[in-house]
Specification:
about 80% helix; mainly alpha; 17 helices; about 300 residues; Na+/H+ antiporter like fold
């Protein structure tokens, strides 16, 4: 069973793309997966993340403050600015621009930890960066979305803060509490965490692609270009910044991956809830989630064959 789950999780990009294609050509197959399902599935995946974390993981933060600061700073300054720059240079229409800016302003996704492992990066730093960016997403995601997209559309900052707290901080905190008080229970439930996350975002992607199939078909070229440029820029900027600060190759790879890979599921859920009148906002977030896994997989396969240098 463990081997099956591992096999299933490793094929995450395959399930993601396959269900997206099905939902695009046959929307009725996934239209049932709407707002309530999206919210609770993502909350469950965040709970799974919390169940895998221990007090020791939090202590790790103090052992690598410099690398953590560089990674976190790039995650919540350079990546949102990359999103705004892509939206501006490509002259995206408001809905798509909001979607790209929103996903660029989100925390790192759990998939980044898998990519970091495959790419021979620093897995401990990847996990801590994902944790820190997730726990503070309730502030930074609405703040950057408001600053960078507020001139295009009204942004409900407080509502987004509450939604981000419900989607990220609360489930992760509950998971950590269960691990602290009931470690054996956490081990049993947490073993399914990665699989739950894979299922959650795959289904979220399918549901939103189905609901936005017409908008995606009308704007496929721009969606593809914007999402690809955003994540390639994120990977590149993250790597360069870490090397500028003279961090070793393994740290640079980690920062690159954490900056380049966002929590697309969270972005899609927030877009569906707070920008419901703009289907392209959710479509942009979901499309971005698909593309970041493709780009991340290619980067990981390249780095996996090359041992990190000093």
């Amino acid at each position: 069973m463990i081997r099956f789950f591992s096999w299933f999780n490793n094929l995450y990009p395959v399930w993601l793309v396959a269900l997206s294609v099905v939902a695009f050509f046959e929307p009725e197959t996934m239209l049932w997966f709407d707002k309530p399902w999206i919210f609770w599935s993502l909350a469950a995946s965040m709970l799974g993340m919390g169940l895998t974390l221990s007090v020791e993981d939090f202590k790790t933060v103090g052992r690598m403050p410099g690398a953590l600061a560089v990674g976190f700073g790039a995650q919540y300054t350079l990546m949102p600015l990359c999103g705004w720059l892509v939206a501006t240079l490509l002259q995206l229409e408001p809905g798509l621009a909001v979607g790209i800016i929103l996903v660029a302003s989100c925390p790192g996704g759990m998939a980044s930890n898998v990519i970091a492992y495959l790419a021979r990066a620093n897995l401990a730093l990847s996990v801590v960066l994902t944790l820190c960016s997730t726990m503070l997403a309730f502030f930074f995601t609405p703040m950057w979305t408001s600053v960078l997209a507020g001139s295009r559309v009204p942004v409900d900052v407080w509502g987004m803060c509450v939604s981000a707290l419900q989607l990220t901080v609360a489930p992760v905190a509950i998971g950590v509490l269960i691990r602290w008080k009931l470690p054996r229970t956490a081990d049993r439930i947490g073993a399914c965490g990665p699989t739950v996350a894979v299922l959650a975002f795959t289904l979220v992607t399918g549901g939103i692609v189905a609901a936005s199939a017409e908008a995606i078909a009308s704007n496929f070229g721009r969606l593809l270009l914007a999402a690809t440029v955003l994540h390639v820029a994120g990977f590149g900027v993250g790597y360069v910044v870490a090397r500028v600060f003279r961090y070793p190759e393994s740290i640079a790879r980690t920062v690159s991956i954490e900056v380049g890979m966002q929590n697309g599921g969270m972005a899609a859920a927030l877009a569906r809830q707070h920008f419901a009148a703009m289907p392209l906002a959710a479509a942009g977030a979901v499309f971005s989630g698909v593309m970041q896994n493709i780009v991340g997989g290619l980067v990981a396969s390249w780095w996996k064959r090359r041992k990190p240098s000093a």
